[in-house]
Amino acid sequence: MFHRAILIALFVMLAVPFAPTSAQAQGRAESFTAFVDALWPDARAKGITRATFDNAMRGLTPDQRVINATRRQPEYGKPVGDYINALVAPRRVQTGLAKAKEWSRALEGVEKKYGVERWILMALWGMETDYGAAKDKWDVFRSLATLAYVKYRHPYFRNELIVAMGIMQNNDYPREQMVSSWAGAMGQSQFMPSSMVGYAVSYSGQGRPDLWNNVPDVLASTANYLNKAGWRTGLPWGFEVVVPKGFDTMKSRATFSEWTKLGVRRADGKPYPRDDQAATPAILFFPSGIKGPAFIATENFLVLKHYNNSDAYAIAVGHLADRLHGGIPFHAAWPKDDRPLSRDLRIALQKKLAALGYQVADFEGRIDFDIRDYIRAEQKKHGMVPDGNPTIALLEKLGVPVR
Fold it and tell me: Which domain holds residue 376?
């Protein structure tokens, strides 16, 4: 996660490419040296010793592979159903069940202490690192220094770089243990450095959290993160629903009892939670449009999006948790012609909605539930089914260039 919770929007290449000529290479090396020199006073002001700083930065050069990785858009442009089905594969379910049995004692204790159900923790563990099988292989300092040097999402990665130095220093971690994803997310829970500082716990009692090797620490730290983000014990993340024929899809928010009265039933046949289990209305949404599955999302769904700000990711985590707990596959089929908008087109849509007078929080391409309501309103104006799903057809109606 960016944390992965904060691993949002890994999309735009902001760096200047590293040219091959020796003169240019020398100039860029000197520029990176200047970056390191300018970093030291800020690191020192935040309590980093010179020995720690030199240990972290000695011999580093920018990593072109990290810059190339910023171009990837894993949760944009791919059909939602394909994305989810690839992540919630039968093998991942079977492995998760075996791991849950292996770590049942730790899971029981973590559940009691933090109030987060074990299946959600297992699903996040499975999603992030395939239950620890996917190992970190990048030097966290080189990755973060590269992103900071090219000012990618500046000053976020520059700050994370200094925080990572503090983690090594304050926990006396050996330099070789400081490995991460390409973007600096560390350990089996994939915490960014600031999230490790804020949420990592030493559940096993070893004095310092070890998110790379200690599974109880991983599970407890993940639970601590969700707990502090507002997880409500006993409340489902959400569930697939079946809407009645002729249902007015402009309706997007209601209590559980109201959804029942409106004839929106759970696809698994189970009853809705009690209204008093939730503090906010539950939200109806169609991640692939009216032709695909419909979902009711609770406030715990929004907590999962703290971990990774993507509807598709949150659905995948919730669905994997359900499957681990004996849940059934989705009732409705995902549409084969689902073509989600690219990030650039989503940003263009956000800007158009803002120009039309809607309150848009940012322009990073994330389609939150408020924006889905704005889309519903525009779809209705233009004679479209108001399902809240952004499409090329809607952009064309709004006069947004799509090429």
Answer: 343-398
